[in-house]
Specification:
- The structure holds two protein chains of two kinds.
- By secondary structure, chain A is an alpha/beta fold.
- Chain A has two domains: about 210 residues, Response regulator (Rossmann fold), CATH 3.40.50.2300; about 130 residues, Response regulator (Rossmann fold), CATH 3.40.50.
- Chain A is globular.
- By secondary structure, chain B is mostly helical.
- Chain B has one domain.
- Chain B contains eleven helices and two strands.
- In chain B, helix 1 runs parallel beside helix 5 and helix 2 packs parallel to helix 4.
- Chain B is globular and about 65 Å long.
- The two termini of chain B are about 35 Å apart.
- Classes of the chains: A alpha/beta, B mainly alpha.
- Chain A: It comes from Hoeflea poritis.
- Chain A: InterPro entries: Peripla_BP_I, TAT_signal.
- Chain A: This is Transporter substrate-binding protein.
Chain lengths: ~400, ~290
């Protein structure tokens, strides 16, 4: 390609101008973080509380004087429950905003869209939703609980109180399938049997004959890994068929989408669930969080969800790591997180597991009653045993995949 | 034996649900050849009318389901017919696009007004025990309501002047106009009737499903499949298609899994349309209504 003198000068000037931009940015007094969560579309019941909790976390940190003496600026994106928009926004924020960290993704599929983009753009990524486990990538930290942390506790609790025969109903996609596998494993490990496992496509809303089938099988308890709005009908039809109180129902997904707020209490009272976080948890740390959060978003805020808390705790871990590293530089922060950093969070102690980049957390078995989740039993410091069985980023730091965990 | 009867009730219940979600669409499509893409949203509106009528206005739930939901959604249908649909008669693709636009607008509007969260009310009916099984009393209500709707519609089309004029209008609108009828009015009332039936369906389903502005999508596909498979004859076609699909769906769900149940329904519909492109009533039950 031949260039004349004028073109060469023009190109050189443009190149010089471009190199100026990031330098000007780096000198500014703010740190940028991005959040990409569905605040509209079908997943917004999950995404809105998460986006609000990130907003709250940033405001809280700024009120304490920011990080490293700099103000934190939050860039928010709403992908509208659409994975194409996740790709678009992840690229845009990584290139245009140059954030120190990105908090993004409700579904696993959205995470698998965002993860390679941010890895390539060398941008630190926090995935904060409870999910099926197995992600192994040094650029990502997964702060939501995985099945090994919650399912086992709930299965054991339920079997001790009811009996050995389980019946599993689950959503028909990878989260539901994998969770059902774990329920089966823990039931068998505990000396029980699984009478049947039924999967439901996400748009099925008529559960009549399935409930009859459950009655015919007559299990001691039903374990639900149903997800989303259509599946909420299951709980209603369960009550309408007179099954509530006759056969115990346990679930690690009930309440994740505010089912206990949306449904009338008499339709679900007595379901057992297991989560990392409950808004009702005792302790000063949580009381203060709930009070401050309500000050910002109003007393009538529906519920501070498990998913929202995952994002809040991810932010706390990131902030602690930045303080420790003294910089927002990606590798320095990752190394600081990999020291097994821990924070005192509203759900209890939250610690990064260096080998998996998942978290070690307290989990709580509780009973849903009258729009509240009442604590029954607390299990301290549960490791992400499922992901640790397959993922070791200490010995294999270049690993980059989501393992399907063989049971 | 207990199980056989409970299964039979579930199958009847499933047929009743299909009837309630698709009969309004069948009336509009069968009588007017208008494909109403906003039908699912009419169902959703019916659900919301019943929910807000009972929880906010404190009205009796049966009054809300049986009177308020069909009335209000029927009025919405009349207004939309007057504003949009009446300008597009005879232009099938344009009507589809326009009603699809309406459906998006209604979903957007309801999301703005009530938020995108699932709401619901519980059924006041107790569960019914059959041997060691029990099932929702609401299923019996749905079966009774669907039966009533079918009989009432048949009487309406067969024994009233409106029904006669409406059937004549479907055959030859110009001739009806020549004889002093008013096809425009017939179309408007028919569209309103279709909307009212959708509203009734939404209201009746509200106690067993979670209502959310996007719930229409869950039902619209099944309603369309039922109507297309049934063919142009409104009541006979609808009854034939819903009975077939409801039975197949529930039996396969029972024998295998819910996924196979859905697949069986769709495979059955595909085969049916391939063999009977005019729908079931294109070949059988000719001359019925």
């Amino acid at each position: 390609m031949a260039l004349n003198r004028r073109q060469l000068l023009g190109t050189a000037a443009a190149a010089a101008a471009m190199t100026q931009v990031p330098r000007a940015y780096a000198q500014s007094d703010s740190i940028v973080v991005s959040s990409i969560y569905d605040q509209s579309g079908g997943l917004d019941v999950y995404g809105k509380p998460v986006a609000d909790l990130v907003r709250f976390a940033v405001a809280e940190q700024n009120a304490k004087g920011g990080l490293l003496g700099k103000e934190i600026v939050l860039k928010e994106y709403d992908p509208q429950s659409n994975n194409q928009l996740y790709a678009q926004f992840a690229k845009r924020t990584a290139l245009a905003d140059k954030p120190a960290a990105v908090f993004a993704g409700i579904t696993s599929s959205s995470r698998e869209v965002v993860r390679p983009i941010l890895r390539q753009a060398k941008t630190l990524y926090f995935y904060t939703t409870q999910y099926e486990g197995g992600v192994c990538d040094r650029n990502i930290f997964c702060t939501g609980v995985t099945p090994a942390q919650t399912v086992q506790k709930l299965v054991n609790h339920t079997m001790a109180k009811t009996g050995k025969k389980a019946y599993i109903v689950a959503a028909d996609y990878n989260y539901g399938q994998i969770t059902a596998d774990w329920v089966k494993k823990f039931t068998l490990d505990n000396g029980g049997e699984v009478l049947n496992t039924e999967f439901f496509p996400l748009d099925v809303a008529d559960f009549g004959s399935s409930i009859s089938k459950i009655q015919a099988a007559n299990p001691d308890f039903v374990y639900s890994a149903l997800v989303g709005g259509a599946h909420m009908s299951f709980y209603r039809q369960w009550k309408a068929a007179g099954m509530l109180g006759k056969i115990q129902l346990s679930s690690t997904t009930f309440a994740g989408g505010n089912e206990h707020i949306a449904l009338p209490a008499e339709e679900y009272n007595g379901h057992w669930i297991c989560q990392n976080y409950l808004q009702e948890l005792p302790g000063e740390r949580n009381k203060k969080l709930v009070a401050d959060f309500h000050k910002m978003f109003g007393e009538d805020y529906p519920y501070i969800t498990e998913l929202g808390m995952g994002a809040y705790q991810a932010f706390l871990l990131w902030a602690a790591a930045v303080e420790k590293a003294g910089t927002v530089d990606r590798m320095a922060v990752i190394e600081a997180l990999e020291t097994g950093i821990s924070v005192d969070a509203p759900s209890g102690r939250v610690t990064v597991d260096p080998a998996t980049h998942h978290t070690i957390v307290d989990v709580h078995v509780s009973e849903a009653r009258d729009k509240q989740l009442n604590l029954i039993e607390k299990f301290e410091q549960q490791p992400p045993a499922d992901t640790s069985a397959v993922c070791d980023l200490i010995n294999n730091p270049d690993d980059n995949q989501q393992y399907v965990i063989e049971l | 034996m207990d199980f056989a009867s409970i299964l039979a009730i579930e199958i009847l219940g499933s047929i009743a649900i299909l009837v309630l979600i698709s009969i309004g669409l069948a009336v509009v499509f069968g009588m007017m050849k208008v494909i109403n893409m906003a039908h699912g949203e009419f169902i959703m509106l019916g659900g919301y009318v019943t929910i807000f009528g009972t929880t906010h206005a404190g009205l009796n739930i049966w009054f809300c389901i049986l009177v308020l939901s069909p009335l209000i959604v029927g009025l919405v249908g009349l207004v939309l017919e007057w504003l949009v649909v009446r300008h597009l008669y005879g232009r099938m693709i344009d009507t589809m696009l326009a009603t699809w636009g309406l459906s998006l607008a209604i979903v957007g509007l309801m999301t703005m007004l009530v938020g995108n969260t699932t709401t619901g009310i519980s059924t006041p009916l107790p569960s019914v025990a059959i041997g060691k099984f029990s099932t929702s009393g609401h299923v019996f209500f749905l079966i009774a309501l669907a039966t009533f709707v079918i009989i009432a519609l048949a009487c309406l089309f067969k024994f009233t002047t409106f029904g006669l004029t409406a059937r004549a209008t479907t055959q030859d609108a110009n001739m009806v106009a020549n004889l002093g009828g008013n096809p425009r009015r017939i179309y408007a009332v028919t569209f309103g009737l279709g909307a009212a039936l959708a509203g009734l369906g939404g209201g009746a389903l509200a106690p067993i499903i979670g209502v959310i502005p996007t719930i229409g999508i869950t039902y619209i596909a099944k309603a369309f499949i039922t109507v297309i498979s049934g063919g142009a004859t409104v009541i006979a076609g609808n009854l034939a298609a819903t009975s077939l699909f409801g039975t197949i769906n529930q039996l396969f769900t029972y024998w295998y899994t819910p996924i196979i149940g859905e697949v069986a329904l769709l495979v059955c519909a595909v085969i049916l349309i391939r063999l009977l492109p005019q729908g079931i009533t294109g070949r059988f039950f000719k001359g019925t209504i």
